[in-house]
Design goal:
Radius of gyration: 13 Å
Structural class: alpha+beta
Distance between the termini: 31 Å
Helix content: 40-55%
Order of helices and strands: HEEHHEEEEE
Strand content: 25-35%
Shape: globular
Length: 108
Amino acid sequence: MKQANAKSVIIEKIKSEYNATGAIHIDSEDIKLNKDGKDALFKSAKTLAEKLGLHRHSLQKHLYNNIYYIEPAGPLVVAISLPEKKIEMFAQMPQSMWSFKLNDRFVN
């Protein structure tokens, strides 16, 4: 229940930040990143982990589990929320880097 509530809070913040009508959490197994997308996520996790003194692999998994699609027809956004470090930010992934499965079809 705690995880569902955290996602609801993030969705509301994304909607406010991007003036969006909605945001959908995308399960990591439904996301397909091309090489550039994987490289960008890897480099972001590495850079952030180094700055925070965290392990890159755990942070990379955290990023994969916090990807949202902004409605209508918007970008994917990676939510970086680490309340214990007082960090909360959103990073957009260009549409050329991804596709994901939604309602049994791939988007983008």
